[in-house]
Amino acid sequence: SQTRISLALARTKLNIKRIVDLSHTVIPGEEEYRLDVDTRFTDEWPQFAKYRRVADAWYLISEVTMNTHVGTHVELPYHHCRDGLDAATFPLTDLVGDAVVVDISRYGHNARIDLDGLRLCAGDLLRPGDIAFFYTGFDCYYRTPQQHDRPWFTTEAIGWLVDEVKIKVMGVDTSGIEVRTPDGSPLAGQPNHERLLCAGIPLVEFLANL
Questions:
Q1: Disulfide-capable partner of 62 in 39, 55, 155, 191 (CB 3.0 to 4.6 Å)?
Q2: How far apart, in whole angstroms, are the C-alpha atoms of residue 134 and residue 151?
Q3: pTM of the entire predicted model
Q4: Alpha-carbon distance 160 to 24, whole Å?
């Protein structure tokens, strides 16, 4: 019957999966923060000199020095909480789960996202335990002079996500979530980070392709 055909098509669509890369490609020498890559043939490193390389063999080893805020990155509680978990102790399972993308692209540069506005955008999308990603479309400015141009959340709005919605991870496709002054400059202190991270909720910054 037509009903059975429709159900079969629905099941087929549900079984189609794709992988979306939500991270920016990082390029040594072109990032705002330090990212250095030193690549040499193995026998050119003093600590690897004992591994002799056959002539003309392609045998490389690299050393990478990077700031933890390069590219798409996860900020864990220890970033702002003295007793918070760090990358070695934070449970990996708490970074895995159902993700929801909330469209906040109506907000432009230095726009204030208050509790009412956030609730309006989120609607009934969010559930306790969700990974909540917020789409602005500002990821197109990554690695440009405008990469810190972004809207910002009030601390009340962040508190709603923590206490009432009870999300497990927050993510944005911008450089951050922190409160701004009327001219767009950062305030002293990081109240939004402290509110989120000290509740044990990681923050992902500079997401892409939401």
A1: 39
A2: 11
A3: 0.88
A4: 29
